[in-house]
Amino acid sequence: MDAQSPSREVVAVAEVIRRHLLQHPQASDTAEGIQRWWVLPVLGEVSLQVVEQALTTLEAEGFLHRLQQAWAPTAYLAARPSDPGPRPTDH
User: Fold this and answer.
1) Phi/psi zone of residue 82: left (φ > 0), alpha (ψ -120 to 50 degrees), beta?
2) Is 64 within 8 Å of 76 (Cβ atoms)?
3) CA 61, CA 44: separation in Å to the nearest integer?
4) Which domains does the chain have, with CATH numbers?
5) What does the alpha-carbon distance between residue 89 and residue 86 come to, in Å, rounded to a whole number?
6) Residues 34, 17: contact at Cβ < 8 Å?
7) DSSP-assigned beta bridge partners for residue 29
8) In whole angstroms, what is the distance from residue 61 CA to residue 58 CA?
9) For 15-27, how does the pLDDT look when each residue is reduced to its tens digit (9 = 90+)?
10) How many DSSP H helices and E strands does the chain contain?
11) Which one-letter DSSP state was computed for residue 77?
12) What is the CA radius of gyration of the chain?
C-alpha cells in the first residue's frame, strides 16, 4: 500500500458511512456524531481522526458534502445530484 492509499480502517469506516447514507439519504451529522452514532454500532470504537479521513475520502469522491456554517459545527451529508437545469416547456 502506498502513502496515498487510505488504510484498511479508513476504507472500512468510509464503507459504513456510505451504507448509512444510502439507507438514510437525508441523514447529516458532525464527524463526532458520525463516529458515535453511525460507525460505533457497526465497527466499535474508531478514532475521530480515522472518521475524518474517511469523510475526506468520501468528499473527494463526490459522495458527500461538507456543510460549514458560522453558527454551527461542520456537518456532513450525502451529495445531491445536480439540478438538471431548466425543463422544456409545452407550447
Assistant:
1) beta
2) yes
3) 25
4) 8-78 (1.10.10.570)
5) 9
6) yes
7) 76
8) 5
9) 999 999 999 999 9
10) 4, 3
11) E
12) 16
Q: What is the pTM of this model?
A: 0.81
How many CB atoms sit inside 10 A of residue 70's CB? 4
Q: Are strands 64-69 and 72-78 parallel, antiparallel or unpaired?
A: antiparallel
Strand partners, 65: 77
From the list 5, 20, 22, 1, the residue with the least C-alpha distance to 57 is 5
Residue 69: which H helix or E strand, with range? strand 64-69
At 42-79, the pLDDT tens digits run 999 999 999 999 999 999 999 999 999 888 899 999 98
**What is the spatial distance between Cα 51 and Cα 6, in angstroms, rounded to a whole number?**
12
In 3D space, the residue among 12, 20, 15 whose CA is nearest the CA of residue 46 turns out to be 12
- The contacts of residue 91 (CB under 8 Å, 6+ apart) are none
* Angle (nearest 5°) at CA 21 between 13 and 16: 20
The x, y and z cell numbers of residue 74, run together, are: 461542520
